[in-house]
Amino acid sequence: MQQRILFSNENKHILNTILKLAFPIIIANVLQTMYQLVDTFWLGRLSANAVASVSLSFPILFLVVSLGGGLTLAGTVIVAQHKGAGDQKMVNYASSQTVMVIFFISIILALIGYYSAGTLMNLIGAGEELMDDAVIYFQVSSWGYIFMFMFFVYQSLMRGIGNVIIPMYIVLGTVFLNLVLDPLFIFGYGPIPGYGVAGAAIASIFTQAISAAFGLYILFKGKRGIKIRLIHMSWDFKWVKNLFSLGLPASLDQSSRAAAMAAMVMLVTSFDSEIVAAYGVGARILSLVVVPALGLSIATTSLVGQNIGAGRLDRAERVGNIGMLIAAIGLSLLGIILFFLAEPLTRFFVPDDPHVIEVGSKFIKIMAPTFGLLGIQQVLNGVFNGAGLTKVSMLISVMVLWMARFPVAFMLSNNTSLSYEGIWWAFPISNAIAAMIAFMYYKRGSWKKIQPQLV
C-alpha cells in the first residue's frame, strides 16, 4: 500500500518537477562554484601560500555576501507565493522592489569590505607570509559585490517563478570566460601584467559584470515571466519591511554559516600553512558538495512557496518528503564517490606538496559519509523558507554551528591527540545533529500553519 502511494501519479509529477527545477539550479551553482575551484587550480600553480591566502579570504567574503544574500532568498519566497496565487502584477512589483533594495545594499557592503580588509584579515589570524595576498584579494573582490548581487537577485527572482534555464546558460558562459581570464590576469601575457593572487579577483569581477548586465536586461525586457520597472523602485516602506522580516533571518542564517567558517579558519591558522592549505582544498570540495544540496533546497523553497500560495498544503508536504528522499540517496552516493577520489582530487589542486595531499584527502574522507544528512537538512530548510519560516532555518544553523561544530572542533583539536584532525571530525558530527533537529521540527508540522507572505 505504501509503495503504491509513494509511486502515485501525483508523487511522480512532484518528483519530476523537483528534478526539472533543481537540475538547472544545481548546474548553475556548480558552475558558480567553479569560480573558486578554477582560482584554486591556477593559484596552486603559484604556491601553497597563494592557495592558503585565498582560503583565508573566502570565509569573510562569504560572510559579507551572506548579509545581502538572505534578502534575495526573501524575494524568491514572496515571488513564488504570488506566482502560486496567480498575481502577475505583484510578481512584477515585488521583483522591482527586491532589485532596488539589493542594489543599495551591495554598494554599502562593497565599501565596508574594501575598507575593512586589513582589519578582517588580522582578526582571522592571517600570518605574515599570507597577509599581503589575503588583503589585496579581499579588497579587489569587494568591488565585485555590486555585480555579484545584481546577478544573484536575478537568479533568485527567476527561481521564484520556476524559470531556471537561462540563468544556467549565463553562468556557463561566464565560467568559460573565467577559465581564460584567470591565468591571463594571474600570470600575465604580452602587454597584460601578472597580478598574482589579485588577478584571480580581477577576472571574477569581469565575468560578474557581464552576468549582471545580462540578468538586468532580461528583467527590464520582461519577456521571461518577470518585468521590472523603474517606477516601481521607489521606496515602499511597508513592502521593504516585509522583505527584511523574511530576509534578515535568512541573512543571519547564511551569515552564521560564514562566521562559523571564519571561526573554523581561526582554529586552522593555529597550525602551519600546509594545514591551512589542506583545509582550503577540503573546504572547496565541501562547497562543491553543498551545491546539489542547495539546488534541491532552492527548488523546494520555490515549489513549497507556490503551493502554499495556492492553498495546497498537502502538496507542499509531499514536495518536502520527496525532496528529502532525493537528497538522502543522491548526496550519499556522491559522498561514496568523493571518499574514493579524495587523494587524486587533493593532488589536482596542490600537486607538489605531499603533506597537503595527505592531510586534505583525509579531511574529505572524514566528511564524505554524512553528505546525505547534509542534503536532508538543506531540503528541510527549503521547506521552512518556502513557508516563510526563515527564522527556523536561522535558529537551526546557529544552534548546530555554534553549539556543536565549533565547540567540538575546538575541544578535539586542543584537548585530544587528534590535533588538527579534530577540526575535520566536527563536520560529520554537526551534519548529523543538524539533520536530526530539522527532521524533528518538520514532523511536528508547525510550518504548515503559517500564513502566506502575500504583501
TrEMBL record:
Membrane topology: Multi-pass membrane protein
Chief location bin: membrane
InterPro entries xref list: MATE_fam, MdtK-like, Membrane_Transporter-Flippase
Origin: domain of life: Bacteria
Subcellular locations according to the entry: Cell membrane
Single GO molecular function: xenobiotic transmembrane transporter activity
Membrane-traversing stretches: 21-38, 58-79, 91-115, 135-154, 166-189, 195-220, 285-310, 322-342, 392-410, 422-442
Keyword line: Cell membrane, Membrane, Transmembrane, Transmembrane helix, Transport
Any one annotated GO CC term: plasma membrane
The keyword Phosphoprotein appears for this protein: no
CDD domains according to UniProt: MATE_like_12
PANTHER family to which the protein is assigned, alphabetical: MULTIDRUG RESISTANCE PROTEIN NORM-RELATED (PTHR43549:SF2), MULTIDRUG RESISTANCE PROTEIN YPNP-RELATED (PTHR43549)
Protein name (Swiss-Prot/TrEMBL): Mate efflux family protein
Organism (species): Galbibacter marinus
